[in-house]
Design goal:
A: alpha/beta; Hypothetical Protein Tm841, Chain: A,domain 3; 6-stranded mixed sheet; B: about 210 residues; mainly alpha; two-stranded antiparallel ribbon; 8 helices; globular; binds adenosine-5'-diphosphate; binds magnesium ion; glycerone kinase activity (chains A, C); phosphoenolpyruvate--glycerone phosphotransferase (chains A, C); kinase (chains A, C); DhaK_1 (chains A, C); DhaK_dom (chains A, C)
């Protein structure tokens, strides 16, 4: 394991200290927790937004804390959902009197722990709403199962719900727009190499020298197909087509695109993937409102990428364009 | 038979011991169809539980089980933390202010715990989760006039083993679809250890 | 070689197309070249800023093109300096009548090719000035040799010179402030794993399973010492101390810090490094004006990091704080 | 002996052939003390040179060498592109409007080329660069009343080999400091091939 760390069991705590040291004017932490909060929280008269999950997906989620996006991010152990007491601390820290929206990625652990936190908060009289992001089309959707995972599309929920909260909207309104994003966003990913959880010390799985995996999850959950490494154009086609199967787009539809790197893939390659994705959109007459290319929702040092498509209407486009001063999602 | 505070404590200590022994095995099961941390999660959580309850003097069962629940909830995370946490919280509530519970009361408490797991996790029997052990065990203790400890143990074990052939519908293993078939569910395996520990702690052959 | 590419010999061209597709409102390219130019270039009455170098260091340098930073970036082949004709095209495209500053990383190839381009531009009557960034303290400095390499500190030159140009300053003034940054900035890096140039198909070097290298260059040039992997705290100390040997800092000095990832190192680890760097600054009573943590000057998928310290005075601090809308360095 | 247009072309074609043959060797030298692209750079550049000059009819030597220079400058990049490019540009300028060059004129051109390399790269003899081959070769052709082609070849080879023991002061190898000792400089190696090709193209034993 080749990592720049001190103690595999202290990575989350040390990372948080390093974040506070780097961004003391933007972030603060609640002592004794792994919660990162907007420096000026709670913002009175604004719905508070809390997200989080296991660590190892940086800059998610602390990088999305800031004016115009999240009010707090709760960091669990690497790839492990945070516990309800931590989430509860975050809720208390950001409640500015208009209630708090929890943005949860759809994993059983995250859902259960955030739900329990919501119950604790409600017991203390804080109004809480929850939305569950499940953008990963690699997983079969079904109301009878755990359903789809939440991956990179989550960041667009943060952005748009954050902008809505900034307008002074009510908790119900912010929740409604977050749900609209969720119903309009789809992601499909692939991986070329595994990653190593520091405390585990060795990779969670292995791929062959020439193998890649379509549909792999951001914690190394198995994908839907292992194949020989394909050219970037073919990978882009596979990912986009899988999304379009689930969410058909027609001419003149408007989308935002996110080409997300999983941590170990050079930015150069992400742009090469985007070249093809943009061509496909052009061919289909789809209007690309904005494209984000970078490492937004990573999986430690995993090599690979995901493509996210968010179908926009006027409201979503306007909120997406709104300013944000989150460290990893600055917009002006 | 009565569930005294001493016996309840012993149950938790025995369970912790079994968990620590089987930690790697539980993790291996979770590596096969989950994210490979179930053994670590349970071991971390129950180590903290023991650290909390062992030196504490309890006057009531609900105080003890509440400490178990809150420790699990705040130390485990993942799916199993809130699920086991909720189970012990419901058990605690059912035993409100009792310093010991007779069989009927205890069985009521176990039923409440199961209902808590199901309410929280929304899994049904057959979804390849801990519910596949909990529900038949609770059915058994509710329906029998005489509870044979060895039968309880055997039943839990059998139900755990039956999860091997199921396709996961809930939890992380559900992403695998049919590929989840062939491995015992890790949460079912830890739940079996919970009931095996329970059986162990009542030294007689029957629980009356 | 596990890469998301199509043709190893077309990576630069395809990347540029992907960039233009992603940021059509910010960037344009000069057809037939590998030059990326600000959409609204040439900006009349502003000194134009051109940088560039071999590709594989993304987001450098195209990610730093935008209002408040560069006017154009010239991309060479992977790890190979661009040719003078390409640089010349960039100079012509950004000259708004006040002359053009070339910001060059100190590699023989870069220096020679940019110099020839400057001669071509001067022959056409365009005023050109050049600054050469040599922040890498891993290399022995000497006026009789090629001297130190230019690495991550270059981005702070882009930022501050860009802000100066935005004030309407003359070419001489912009050049002077760029030189001031160069004399105040130092970087020291280390690597854990090698990287693979796509056209080469295999890593340029190998490290042992437990080996790291202090002072390695961003093209895989050998460093000053190979050692067993050390804890992040020790690595941070080594890097900072090497910088301080060369540029002593005293109590109350003000600095900007950049913790730069080489491409394959998770953001989590960079923050863990920053924790220690920040502690060292605090111990020495040095005032940290701003900290940048991220992948700014990469080396494809190499794992490792560099630490940059820039000593600030009031002028440099103010210019560093000025807004920028460059894709990879947004500031408001 | 005269440098005619045909002979100049042949020189470039022969050099290209040698470069293509020695491409891997040049790259290996650069892998040891540089960034491992010198063979690739030279091969790419001279392939383009040949593509450009082979089908073209030239009336003057300067037009031919200007095409060589401009092709190298625009296709090679790195350190060697501008250096070889400058050398051929200076050679071109020195031979302005000539359709053939006598020995004196040609030697003047080579001296101008060397001066170009030194002006551009600021390297001195002993810095472990191509200058360590170019300068002694130019000194030789300037100082001898009779130029023996085999001597020219031998001298270039010897000077190339001597770079092995030098510590690099310029170029990428300089980062290695003393560790650059023990490998022949790649640019010195390609420069040797340039002069070896020159010697080859004048079939006689002397150049007069
Ligand atoms: N919805 C659910 N209802 C009941 N039990 C569940 C549910 N989801 C998961 N589980 C149980 O939790 C176990 C996994 O626990 P663990 O590995 O600790 O958490 P995680 O899956 O978050 O890593 C599964 O084996 C299963 O028995
Ligand atoms: N300043 C210089 N003056 C003369 N020759 C130089 C100088 N710097 C480098 N060289 C020559 O260039 C060669 C390297 O060329 P090449 O590998 O093509 O470029 P790069 O170093 O940019 O990769 C060296 O072996 C050396 O002979
Ligand atoms: Mg887990
Ligand atoms: Mg698990
Ligand atoms: Mg090179
Ligand atoms: Mg080279």
């Amino acid at each position: 394991m080749k990592k720049l760390i001190n103690d595999p069991n202290a990575v989350v705590q040390e990372m948080i200290e390093g974040m506070i040291a780097a961004h003391p004017d933007k972030l603060k932490t609640i002592p004794g927790t792994t919660v990162l909060v907007r420096k000026d929280a709670p913002v009175q008269g604004k719905v508070g937004l809390v997200s989080g999950g296991g660590s190892g997906h940086e800059p998610a989620h602390a990088g999305y804390v800031g004016k115009g996006m999240l009010d707090a991010a709760v960091a669990g152990e690497v790839f492990t959902s945070p516990t309800p007491d931590q989430v509860f601390e975050a809720i208390k820290a950001v409640d500015g009197g208009k209630g708090v929206l929890l943005i949860i990625k759809n994993y059983t652990g995250d859902v259960l722990n955030f739900e329990m936190a919501a119950e604790m908060a409600e017991a203390e009289g804080i109004k809480v709403a929850k939305v569950i992001v499940n953008d990963d089309v690699a997983v079969e959707d079904s109301t009878y199962t755990t359903g789809r995972r939440g991956i990179a599309g989550t960041i667009l929920v943060h952005k748009i719900a954050g902008a809505m909260a900034d307008t002074g909207a009510s908790l119900e309104e912010v929740e409604a727009v977050a749900k609209k994003v969720i119903s309009n966003v789809r992601t499909m990913g692939m991986a070329l190499t595994p990653c190593t959880v520091p405390a585990a010390g060795k990779p969670g799985f292995e791929h062959g020298e020439k193998e890649m995996e379509i549909g792999m999850g951001i914690h190394g959950e198995p994908g839907i197909e292992k194949t020989e490494i394909q050219p970037a154009n073919q990978v882009a086609e596979t990912l986009v087509n899988k999304i379009l199967e689930d969410m058909p787009l027609v001419e003149k539809d408007r989308v935002a695109i996110m080409i997300n790197g999983l941590g170990g893939t050079p930015i150069m390659e992400l742009y090469i993937v985007n070249k093809k994705v943009a061509e496909m959109m052009k061919e289909k007459g789809i209007d690309v409102h904005e494209t984000f290319v970078g490492n937004y929702m990573t999986s430690l040092e995993m090599a690979g990428c995901s493509v996210t498509l968010l179908k926009l209407d006027d409201q979503l486009a306007e909120l997406l364009d709104a300013p944000s001063d989150a460290i990893a999602f600055k917009k002006s | 038979m009565k569930l005294t505070i001493a016996r309840a404590k012993e149950w938790m200590l025995t369970f912790n011991q079994r968990i620590q022994e089987e930690k790697d095995h539980l993790t291996e099961l979770d590596q096969a169809i989950g994210d490979g941390d179930h053994g670590l999660n349970m071991a971390r959580g129950f180590q903290e539980v023991v650290k909390k309850i062992e030196p504490t003097n309890y006057d009531t069962l609900d105080a003890l089980f509440k400490d178990v629940a809150m420790t699990l909830i705040s130390k485990v995370g993942g799916a199993s933390g809130p699920l086991y946490g909720t189970a012990f919280l419901r058990l605690s509530t059912a035993l409100k202010a009792e310093s010991e519970a007779n069989r009927e009361k205890f069985v009521e408490g176990l039923k409440a715990a199961l209902d808590g797991i199901k309410a929280r996790g929304k899994a049904h029997r057959g979804d390849k989760t801990m519910v596949d052990v909990w529900e038949p065990v609770v059915d058994y203790v509710q329906s029998q006039s005489t509870i044979h400890l060895s039968q309880l143990n055997e039943l839990a074990k059998e139900k755990m083993e039956e999860t091997k052939d199921l396709e996961a519908k809930m939890g992380r293993a559900s992403y695998l679809g049919k590929r989840s078939i062939g491995t015992i569910d890790p949460g079912a395996a830890s739940s079996y250890l919970l009931f095996a520990s329970l059986a162990d702690c009542f030294q007689k052959g029957e629980m009356d």
